[in-house]
Amino acid sequence: MVPSLKLHDFMEEIRGAKTQAQEREVIQKECAHIRASFRDGDPLQRHRQLTKLLYVHMLGYPAHFGQMECLKLIASPRFIDKRVGYLGAMLLLDERHDAHLLITNSIKNDLSQGIQPVQGLALCTLSTMGSAEMCRDLATEVEKLLLQPGPYVRKKAILTAVHMVRKAPELSDIFLPLCAKLLHEHHHGILLGTITLIMELCERSPAALRHFRKVVPKLVQILRTLVTTGYSTEHSISGISDPFLQVQILRLLRILGRNHEKSSETMNDLLAQVATNTDTSRNAGSAVLFETVLTIMDIHSAAGLRVLAVNILGRFLLNSDKNIRYVALTSLLKLVKSDHSAVQRHRPTVVECLRESDASLSRRALELSLALVNSSNVRSMTQELQAFLESCPPDLRADCASGILLAAERFAPTKRWHIDTILHVLTTAGTYVRDDAVANLTQLIGGAQELHAYSVHRLYHALAEDISQQPLVQVATWCIGEYGDFLLENCEETEPLQVEEEEVMALLEKVLQSHMSLPATRGYALTALMKLSTRIQGDTEAAILEKMPLVEHGGPQTDEEAKESRDDTAPVPTEPQTSKLLDLLNLLDDTSGDTQQPPSLNPSPEGALVHLLDLPCAPPPPAPIPNLKVFEREGVQLNLSFTRPPGTPALLLITVTTTNSSEDEVTHFICQAAVPKSVQLQLEAPSGNTVPAQDGPPITQLFRILNPNKAPLRLKLRLTYNHFGQSVQEIFEVNNLPVKTWQ
Amino acid sequence: MQFMLLFSRQGKLRLQKWYVPLSDKEKKKITRELVQTVLARKPKMCSFLEWRDLKIVYKRYASLYFCCAIEDQDNELITLEIIHRYVELLDKYFGSVCELDIIFNFEKAYFILDEFLLGGEVQETSKKNVLKAIEQADLLQENRIRITARVSMGGLRKNLY
Q1: Nearest residue of B to residue A289, measured between CA atoms
Q2: Interface test with A, best of B3, B15, B71, B77 (most A CBs within 10 A)
Q3: Closest Cα of chain B to A71: distance in Å?
Q4: Which of A189, A250, A251, A179 has its CA nearest to residue A215?
Q5: Which chain B residues have a beta carbon less than 8 Å from that of A284?
Q6: What is the DSSP letter of A299?
Q7: Could you tell me the CA-to-CA distances from A545 to A245, A275, A282, A529, A585 in Å, in that order?
Q8: Which stretches within A64-187 are classed as H helix?
């Protein structure tokens, strides 16, 4: 049998393992030894075995069989055993394990034996993993130790009391009476622990809070002594006397001074002193100063002191240390509502922080900047924010865009500036704006009669450059439809560029047919084309489509438009038209029955719209891919037709058509699809869920597939529907997908 | 403080001190996610980040990351000082400490931490006192004296300072 390894040899062997499997093997072998040793090995070696076990526990391997050993070691009289045993208890036992209660007795014994290092171990363990029950059992022991003179055990007992109060709040009554006296001790560890305990008690009970207000003068005195007495090597960091203690005192002062004028007054002078005298060349000083600022801002301080505090934060913003800038930005953000004008003074510095390379800082700078925008600085701030929008990391774009739009809405100095601002945001970060941005802008433009010409010109030019950003495209097409006649005249406020009718129509058609356009966008484009077809012809008698009246904000504008155009397309102008668009309209009128429904402007396209887009006015794709029948069952058939639009080689469009030649209708039809991981699939809403019997109008659905890596395409379909009184579920993979669909 | 983790640049855990009760499974999950998050940070980024509902303060010393999870009302800057103080204590004890010291003497690293923090709070602000306490405990361990009732071992009730 392989002999058991010494601890360090064991570690070496584990570290030498080249694979996970090898490591596991070494560990399993040794754990077998450890188990055997626990069972009947030399008790003097037990602590070594447990140490080995604790090491593998840290590596992530199971170690629960060591729990009982911890108990045995803790009960041993040898110090090394207790040391390792208590460590094991802290690592392997917690209140969820029943075994944890078993150490209560050992702890009780160790606490009462009077051997300080041992008492230390017991208190440490109790405060790390002691459950509420254990705390209740041992409260009296801990109380005794709080009162005995030796500072080593005393400071630990105090912090153990903190833990006990957290776990079993009713124990507060035991420890509360002892606190005030402890503040008169000189040992820093005792003071620190006591202050922590008082904080814990105050946070749990308003009565305790009132009770401890009386120690404010004592706290002030302790802090003053720390700040004014000379350098003490033992407790100083970078020349600051015990910053840990200073910070803790300041925190307690904050709790006691909050909402209490008298206490606040007592600490005012001292806070001013600390705020002005603390040396912040190193982090320790900044930590104290930071805590001071937080306290000043949270209590009833004099106005001058508050301004001083905000200015300190402003100075922090200029600090070369990133961490300090971070806490400054976070704090200023919390203060911007209550002390707005004080924070405003630091706006330029805040704006500078937008240029931070660290995203967590620039995010805070963004939030703070947005909070600082008001009517007097809106122009310059918007400029800064827009510059930021252009270069900021993607996860901040949405917040920045909506922030700018919100600020513009609240503080826009003129309507034209407002329109310009929204336009700029839509062009820079259109994909990141919220859905209501479109409605807001159309509302705004509609209501600014004097700016119709200006708006349509600007939007037209923006659209001509880029038709990919959907919100911009939607607003622009709407605007062109409404005010297209202005477009053909010159506008003084924009560049004089003669725009021809054909150009406008061509642009709208381009939008209509672009595969980047969402169904809603196509709806806008279509409506615009229809409106223009009558407006631009200038026929006064057929002023059928009058300018839309301003709709109530928040109303579904698209529905209104749909209603209007639906009413008005019925009488079709009879003049001969060269526009391809009217071919469309004629076709609409000529076909009977179901296509009487005009193309819907709602996001879910109906079958008619899809068919419209398939009409000959769309250029046929080169080398068409043959259709594929993929499914047939009792007269229900699924056919796939494929399109690879030129110009977008990674894109494949599949139209799934479901027909029903049976005697019974198909209802609740749902088709779902899955593709390989490297391929992206987007399903558009189907034209409907029902196929009437005997070759009623089919359901069509469009799949968009993006396959930039040209991975071999696989498609799995899942159909569910009701037919002949049964619910049908079919899952199948589509075989024989033509190679041209993905190559 | 809710917990402190020490881990290497490869994400190997070297010390874990939990001051809140969580199941082993939860601890593993938190450790895995947090280690990933911190290791993904670029060197010039600030030492603070928000993670779940906690504030995380971390600092890298040579090949080891020291990572603390503190609560909303805790002071981030002083937490940096806590981390630094712990590193100083390790350094003094081991004499120019390096990661290997902490690996091979992990139990000592815990003992030192337990003389500096207790229940997640600072218990002793004097470096000297912490180191003296460890020294005394080490001596007691070396002596291998049996600790029995105080009747026979009155001399052992040393006042540590």
Answers
A1: B77
A2: B77
A3: 17
A4: A179
A5: 81
A6: S
A7: 77, 70, 72, 12, 15
A8: 67-75, 79-92, 103-112, 116-129, 132-147, 151-167, 172-182
Which residues of chain B lie closer than 8 angstroms to A327, CB-CB?
Answer: 48, 76-77
Token digits for A276? 């002005």
- Both structure tokens of B103: 């690996």
The widest CA-to-CA distance across chain B, in whole angstroms, is 60
Residue A497 identity: L
Residue B13 CB contacts under 8 Å (≥ 6 apart), including other chains? A58, A59, A60, B5, B6, B7, B31, B35
CB pair distance less than 8 Å for A192 and B44: no
Contact B129 A55 (CB under 8 A): no
Interface test with A, best of B37, B50, B57, B75 (most A CBs within 10 A): B75
The token pair at A240 is 């600051």
Cβ contacts (< 8 Å) between B143 and chain A: which residues?
79
Q: Residue B49: what are its φ and ψ, rounded to 5°?
A: -150, 160
Q: What is the ipTM of this complex?
A: 0.90
Crossing angle of the two packed helices A303-317 and A322-335, in degrees rounded to 10: 140
User: How many C-beta atoms lie closer than 10 Å to residue A541's C-beta?
Assistant: 6
What does pLDDT average to in each consecutive run of 10 residues of chain A (743 residues)? 78 90 92 92 91 94 92 94 96 82 92 93 96 94 93 96 96 94 94 97 95 95 88 82 96 95 92 92 94 94 90 93 94 90 92 88 92 91 92 87 89 88 86 81 83 84 83 86 79 68 82 83 85 64 48 45 43 39 39 39 39 44 77 92 84 91 91 89 89 89 88 90 90 87 83
Say how many CB pairs under 8 Å bridge A and B: 181
- Assigned token pair, A505: 């129509």
Indicate the residue of A235, A284, A360 with minimum beta-carbon distance to B49: A360
The residue of B3, B78, B135, B153 whose CB has the most chain A CBs within 10 angstroms, and thus the best one to mutate to test that interface, is B78
Q: Is A401 exposed, middle or buried (0-12, 13-18, 19+ CB in 10 A)?
A: buried
What is the pTM (predicted TM-score) of this model? 0.73
